[in-house]
Write a structure and sequence with these properties.
This protein is mainly alpha-helical and 153 residues long. The protein has a domain of 97 residues. It contains four helices and four strands; from the N terminus they run ααββββαα. A two-stranded antiparallel sheet has the order 1-4. Strands 2-3 form a two-stranded antiparallel sheet. The radius of gyration is 21 Å and the shape is elongated.
């Protein structure tokens, strides 16, 4: 199956200007859809994250969270919510090692680790719910665009 690659979209400036003039109610619905999607992703990731009650220190599962809504600058700007695992270097490293696995070894005999296989939770959780999240956000954008056209008409 061939994939269509679009390098230039005619009328994109019109679409961008239309979305800049969206009513606050429409922006609220889009924001709500983004928040629901991020909450759903965080929930699934926390369920999949490895957890050992006997392990000292903070657990990766407890550090998975979403950020506030941020405006993304640049050529393809937009509004984004980031889902993050790890709120310190220690827990971020632990999340990385859990997701991708760890080779046996260490810097010294006191730090030797037997290693472990990958225990995917972060991207697996995202991939599990991404279609539903994208569909919810797309519906919110579609409703906002229709409402904007109706109000101009």
């Amino acid at each position: 199956m061939a994939r269509l690659r679009v390098t230039r979209i005619e009328g994109i400036e019109t679409v961008r200007s239309m979305f800049k003039t969206l009513p606050p109610r429409a922006i609220g619905r889009i924001t709500h859809a983004l928040n629901l999607g991020a909450d759903e992703i965080v929930s699934v990731q926390k369920q999949l994250a490895p957890y050992d009650e006997n392990s000292p220190g903070p657990h990766v599962r407890d550090t998975i969270h979403k950020t506030d809504i941020r405006e993304k600058k640049g050529k393809f700007g937009g509004v984004v919510i980031f889902v993050v695992a790890g709120d310190s270097k220690q827990t971020a490293d632990a999340a990385w090692r859990s997701e991708y696995g760890r080779e046996p070894g260490g810097k010294s005999p006191n730090e030797w680790h037997p290693g472990h296989d990958p225990q995917a939770f972060f991207f697996a959780g995202y991939h599990f719910v991404r279609r539903r999240v994208r569909a919810r956000v797309a519906r919110a954008f579609s409703e906002a665009a229709k409402a904007s056209v109706r109000s101009r008409g």
